[in-house]
Amino acid sequence: MDDKRTQRGTGTHVPGTVERLVAAWLAEAERHDPAAAAEARAGWERGALPERAAQDLATWVTARITDTGFTEDEGPYVEGDVRITPADKDTVRDWLRARGHAV
Question: pTM here?
């Protein structure tokens, strides 16, 4: 595994998924809790999210699933700034677990 994959991803995630969703999460966090977002961004840039930030990211990605795969008759459409699928959620949570976070 090369250094970039070790730092940012797992061997199984779609390239860019974690980075795309972390960027969206940080942008939203900055609007609601600038201090926590600054701490999370600093951890992200160092390559190690603080545990609190990792838990917040795991919760956020689960709550923000926008592409449920349901049709209009089967379930609700969840509006959001970015498209997040259940597989994206699993990718982020797997990525966090691979870094020792209990999510």
Answer: 0.77
